[in-house]
Amino acid sequence: MIILGIILLVIGFLTGIAILWTIGIVLAVIGLILWVLGAMGHAVAGRKHYW
Fold this sequence. Notes:
The chain is an all-alpha fold.
């Protein structure tokens, strides 16, 4: 999700399409939040890993 957000940010910036820029920011932020929660050991979306 983070990578898709960054790709949309770049495409939106290069083409000047504001909606791609906005969606890219939202996806990147949500991806970062989920990544941090997963790294802290919280179950994300009902998934918990035991390793």
